[in-house]
Amino acid sequence: MKYIVLLFLFVSFKCSLANHCKITRTKTDITCDCSSKNLRRIPLRKIPRETTILNLSGNSLTLVTNNSFEGLGKVHTLYLQSSKITLFEVGAFSGLDSLTYIDLSSNFIEKESLPPGLFRPISKLQYLNIASNLFLISKEYPDRVLQDLTHLQTLSMSGINGAVFGNGFKYLTSLNSLNLDPCSINELQNDTFVSFKGLPILNLNFICRFKKVQPGALAPFQSISSLAIVGSELIRISDLLVVLSSLRDRNMSLIDFSSNYRSRTGADIISSEAFSYLGGVCVKEVILRRNQIGIIQGGSISRMKYKNCLQKFDVSQNNIYGDYQTALEIFKLSVLKVLDFSKQEILGPYKKIKNESFNSEDSKYSLSYSVDLPPSLERLNASGLSIKLSPLANVNFKFGSHVVYVDVNWTPFTNCDGVITGLDNLQFFGMSGFNCKILNPKMISSFKNLQELQSRNANLNIGLQHDVNAIFLKGLEKLRIIDFAGNGLENLNPELLRSQYNSLYSVDLSNNNFDDFPFQITEFKNLSYINLENNKIIDFDEKVTNDLDDLESRVKGHLKIRLDRNLLQCNCKSLIFIKWLFKTKIQLDNGGNYSCGYIDGSKKTTAYALKNIDELTKQCASKFWLITSVCLTLLLIIIIFISSIVYKYRITLQYWYLVIRRRYKIYSKLDEQSDYKYSAFVAYHHDNYRWVCGPLTSFLEGEKKLSLCLHDRDFALGSLIVDNIFEAISQSKKVILIVSKSFLKSTWCEYELDMARMRMFRENKDILIVILVEKIPPEDMPKSLLRIWNNVTCIEAEEYVSEENTPQFQHLFWKRLYQSIIT
Ligand SMILES: *[C@@H]1O[C@H](CO)[C@@H](O)[C@H](O)[C@H]1NC(C)=O
Ligand SMILES: *[C@@H]1O[C@H](CO)[C@@H](O)[C@H](O)[C@H]1NC(C)=O
Ligand SMILES: *[C@@H]1O[C@H](CO)[C@@H](O)[C@H](O)[C@H]1NC(C)=O
Ligand SMILES: *[C@@H]1O[C@H](CO)[C@@H](O)[C@H](O)[C@H]1NC(C)=O
Ligand SMILES: *[C@@H]1O[C@H](CO)[C@@H](O)[C@H](O)[C@H]1NC(C)=O
Ligand SMILES: *[C@@H]1O[C@H](CO)[C@@H](O)[C@H](O)[C@H]1NC(C)=O
Ligand SMILES: *[C@@H]1O[C@H](CO)[C@@H](O)[C@H](O)[C@H]1NC(C)=O
Ligand SMILES: *[C@@H]1O[C@H](CO)[C@@H](O)[C@H](O)[C@H]1NC(C)=O
């Protein structure tokens, strides 16, 4: 039972919490946020009495009744926008004694929704926003009900085309800002704002649809300081400037005429006369951004009455391609500090810039310019200009000593073969998008105070290759931030960053081609941010990770490194690296969790690899043994293979070896062709010794005077038998094999046979004479002999061998033998 009660209490508590407005307290304010809760009435009981800021926006209030805010006397700020309010009762705001700020925009309020006297209880109101309601329907401003607001300083409402600013506005005697946003007014006439005459209005913000303005339209605003007419899209600046004629000789802080002319094809030419309306006002800041201005006529600046007022001039995002003279006049603006003419987008028919392909000749004549800057200039933004393709020249800026910021990013100079001087105090230089394939290493070396260098996508990989002595950044000892992203870099000159060991804080090398950590880290004192995203890094070795950890402790835990989108590998080689990713105190993007090529060829993440690190380690160990054993087996197979080949062709190999060796011996010159040392080498088995050394020798040597080589007699003692056999065969005209069964069985038989065979092939001569001294069936003959049988002179001698003591040398056998030796 107890528990059920508790549960019930808990549930009801939760429910009431869900409906509750969110209370936040700061030192000075208590904010009650009841926004976007689909409330139909104001939940007075849930709003703390001491609330100072009340947010009721985004509800469905429809009707705000008498005393809706009873007791909320501390609320100074009330948000009621977008709450579908259609009607207020006259006492709706009573009780809001401290209210100074109310936002009623984007409701369904029309003139009748606001009963006269509605604002009387909150007459201390300083800020009122009633824009985007339904006043448009009756084409009337609710000026009568507003006239109680004598303390109102800022009024924001929608401008209604054709409606008249009524007399009620005259009572807003504290009004200093009038915002018409949104505003459908097409035309400003001399009498449009007469009701505001004499009010202390300083700021005007018109986001209207002006097509036409009369010159005296702003005359009633006698104290105006800041004028913004923006977003008209329909009126050329040259037509709009005339509205300044009634502000002549005023001291103003800002004239903002941005985005007033947008059309596909049109361009605006501002004559020096039109420009003189601007020049007639002593204004500190002029913004003419995004108006399709094509030309500001030469002489415009010279004709300005107040050249010594303008401090900031922004003509960015136009189509200015001329007039060159105007650029040369700029230096006359004696107090100009900020000049922004970035992003001149050439549209439509004015796309006249010639697409000249870069001519390498251009780089040869290095021009030198001297450019006068406005003497107070501090910041120059000339980024994104569609200039005629041109190489950088040597430029010397005069009066550039105050310049701290030069942004020429994405203004595509076709080379970097120039030296820029005269900007000794420059702190920021942007040269992204230059084509620095040709780079003068001293290009920026005069910027001794440079702190930030942006050079993205500038082909530095090629340009820096020639800077072998690392001059490019030498001496820039204050450089803190370097951005070399997207330069195709594969490596950096180890000396490149030497001058920045103490100063470098942040380096962006993303979108390059590095496959390892690109530079030595050990010397840096304050390097805290390294971006290596989108390179080709596989892993870092242990030295790099140790160095990085050292750096991390040097910069006291502030080191951040980005490594996403590399070619990281989660394999056996990177085990230590993967562990390091999650162990290091360096702040890595993704917390060290990157995609990586896994050991099995799939795509995984480093977090996955870490989770499975034990298995991975095991796999790597087995892989190691697998690889080792495979290698060993392979080696063994190769050895066996080679051995068997060698064994099979051992005699052939040996023969060739001996041939070659013989060539290199001195006596190899002994003529092979004509004079053999022996007429024949007789190869025989010891069993036939008697016959060979008896009848055979006495016939061939005694009778016929031939010389024979017999191993028993002629082989050199001390030489190897193989050498002897080879020499004997080489030096004999013929080789006689005395073939008996025992000869065929002997070890040397085949050897001698093969040697003879090799020589036959080599010299293409029939040198082999076989004497069969026994009957031997063909199948018992050595295969190698059978293969060459046709080229062998075969003589059978069985009968003659037996009669060894009384040889009949007249016999046919001896004749044939003799014949075959001498032919
Ligand atoms: C009031 O609430 C709306 C809707 O939640 C919110 O957009 C707005 O920022 C809030 N205003 C303030 C000042 O907190
Ligand atoms: C609201 O209060 C006013 C007086 O402050 C009164 O005249 C009016 O009748 C009241 N409206 C309603 C609906 O109570
Ligand atoms: C508007 O006022 C200017 C002087 O401020 C005057 O020259 C011009 O004629 C006036 N235009 C009309 C239509 O009254
Ligand atoms: C503008 O300011 C200058 C000096 O700050 C002052 O001398 C001059 O009177 C001012 N002009 C107007 C119209 O207020
Ligand atoms: C300029 O020429 C190059 C090739 O020569 C071409 O790729 C490029 O699109 C051209 N640019 C313009 C703006 O015509
Ligand atoms: C310079 O101009 C470009 C383009 O208009 C802009 O993106 C950049 O932020 C500007 N630089 C500064 C410092 O305002
Ligand atoms: C390190 O660099 C940061 C950021 O540029 C800077 O605020 C800090 O003073 C530097 N520290 C040292 C010791 O130079
Ligand atoms: C690592 O990143 C992948 C993909 O981005 C994600 O699915 C996974 O949950 C992350 N793992 C951890 C531990 O954060």
From TrEMBL:
Positions of the TIR domain: 676-821
Signal peptide: 1-18
PROSITE patterns, sorted: TIR (PS50104)
GO biological process: innate immune response; toll-like receptor signaling pathway
A single GO cellular-component term on record: plasma membrane
Superkingdom, natural source: Eukaryota
Name under which the protein is recorded: TIR domain-containing protein
Native source organism of the sequence: Mytilus galloprovincialis (Mediterranean mussel)
Lineage: Eukaryota, Metazoa, Spiralia, Lophotrochozoa, Mollusca
